[in-house]
Structure formats: structure tokens, C-alpha cells
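FIELD: query
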Amino acid sequence: MPLTTVNVTELFVSFQGEGLHAGRRQLFVRFGGCPLRCRWCDTPESLERGPSCRVFAPEGMRVLPNPLPLDRLDHEVRRLQELAPPLHALAVTGGEPLAQAEALVAWRVRSAVRLPVLLETAGILPGRLERVLPAVAIVSLDVKLPSNSGERPRWEEHAECIRLAVAAGREVYVKMPVDGRTDPDEVARGARLVAEMGRGVPLFLTPIAAPESATLTIDAGTLHAFHALASRCHPDVRVLPQLHKVLGIP
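FIELD: result
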């Protein structure tokens, strides 16, 4: 039986804060629920599927009950698109949107929104990623390093997700969050993994900021060292902080 509802935490328009398209204006659909509990998570309100969804529109914020019918979600997204042009993409984020992969596919199949979809994922659910790739134009994928995430290693899952996205011909970039606790051996392993799965895929080292602030938890010297280390394994390594935190916006 096809899914007809989805759990969404919030809808808003903002500038993309991370990765290859940082600074571009996008419409964000933040799905609720995530199987991970990363120490540095900056969206803890989306870790569980909540009872309500906040819609941030030019006239103010509204609250809708969850789960949202897919037709209602599409209506709200189309309305934001009309009220806040121009937009580069529809950023589907979380939480972990692949936790609701079937609902995402069902929505995109029936959607009247014609923006390209940028999927932001932790890259740990390859089977579900494969299911949604036909509905996605851009894949923004994280490599979670155990030394700073506090999670178990996910190397195989990350590798398979990158392989699938590249094989499908999608635009792909990878973000690797780093902080002062990051193990240098993990930085090298992550960079090698990205290079092996997709040598032309840009790798962004993302300095982790303290919760509720733009204060970085890593110093410049360590960032230089990590960049040099990763660059021995991968030809396109870049350092980019979370732009939205620097600007003080969602």
C-alpha cells in the first residue's frame, strides 16, 4: 500500500550552508527521525519524529500537525517556492531523510514542484539511497568519523552509498566533519575511501562548530594538518565551515 504521509520537522528558505553549493538559496524540507546520535549534531530537534512541523514563510511561522499528507507537503512547498524566488534547489535534509525513503519517493512521484532535489544524507543506508536516486539530482553525503561522531564505524555503508550515487550519474560531493578530537588515521582512511569510490568527487573537511554557536572546535593548525593528510589520498580536498552558522541563519 503506497505511503500517503510523511513526518517533517520544518520547511524554510535559506542559503545552503555546506559543501559544493554553499551560498546558493534553496528551499529546505527537513525530515524527522535519524538512526544516528552524533555528538555534534546541530539539528537535535529532528532526531525523533515529532508531532508538528514548522513552516517559515515571509508572513511568519505556522505550525502544522504531523504526519503531513503528501499533498499538503507539496502544497506548502509550492507556496514557499512562489513566495520566495529565485531558488537553486529543493534541499531534502534531516534528521536522516532516507529513514523515510518510501515516503520521499512517493512524494516526488506525485509532486508538482520542479526544482532539482539535493539530498543531504549521512550515507549509511545504501539500499534506501538506491531507491531514491531516480528522484534526486544532487547527493550531499557525509563520512562520519567515529572519533568525533561517537558512532560506530560506517566505512562499508559510506563506500557503497558513494559508489551508487556516482554510478547513477548524480552530482556528488562528500563532507567530512572534523574537530579537535578527530583521529588523523580516520581522516586519511575517509579520504582514501572517497578517492576509491569516486576520484572526481570533491571532499569537504567541515570544521565542527560548538552547539548553538559559530565557535569552531578545531584550530587552524590542525585543519592545515588534516587538509595535507587528506590531500595525499584525494586530489580535491577543500575546507569550508558551516556558512549558515557564520551568517546566523537557519
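FIELD: remark
The chain has one domain: 5-247.
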